[in-house]
Amino acid sequence: MYDHYDALIFDMDGTLVDSGQLHEFGWSETLNKYGIPIDRPLMRSLAGVPTKATIEILLQKFNLTPTATLDEMNDFKEAWVHDNMHNFVKPTALIEVAKKYHGIKPMAIGTGAYTQEAITILGLCGLDKYIDAVVGADQVKNPKPAPDTFLRCAELLGAAPEKCVVFEDSKLGLQAAASAGMAGIDVLLVHAIENDYFL
């Protein structure tokens, strides 16, 4: 199905990894702690946006004066995810695509998560052996929906952007793929993979 591409690039959360509940609970704990309202449709729409940028959007949306620094709120959420990830994460059915092309085509993760978190989660899911490169939000100046994450993946894989295919579960991620000049696969429509994140 993807034989005519030179490289495969996967988003992680909600795409190659079922982690929706991990991040939903992590965000709920964080937002409750710092007095930020939980707008479920808004949170759903921000899937794939890095933690600090999400907090900034929420503070602006609700016209709030923060009760803590951005770094403190970010660190609280990241620590909660780190401490609880082993209870939640597992591969999605997309692992079959990774298995099929393992050793045949180079594959990367392009994620809004931080790189070390992504590497840890891939290891917990047994997915790390399929992935040749991991590009987290901390590696690029402009994360999704900018194309930087996926362009960096293509660079690390030694593939031309137009010969890459990106698997994504979010509108922002698909927008980033299009901006990078790459084919985008909506995993819900094509592979029936649904991210159970603030549904």
Automatic annotation (TrEMBL):
- Which InterPro entries does the UniProt entry name for this protein? B-phosphoglucomutase_hydrolase, HAD-like_sf, HAD-like_SPP, HAD-SF_hydro_IA, HAD_sf, PGP-like_dom2
A Pfam family the protein falls into = Hydrolase
User: Which portions of this protein are annotated as coiled-coil regions?
Assistant: none
Quick one: signal sequence residues? Answer: none
**What top-level branch of life does the organism fall under?**
Bacteria
Similarity field: Belongs to the HAD-like hydrolase superfamily. CbbY/CbbZ/Gph/YieH family.
User: This protein is called what?
Assistant: Fructose-1-phosphate/6-phosphogluconate phosphatase
Organism ancestry: Bacteria, Pseudomonadati, Pseudomonadota, Gammaproteobacteria, Cellvibrionales
Q: Which gene encodes it?
A: yqaB
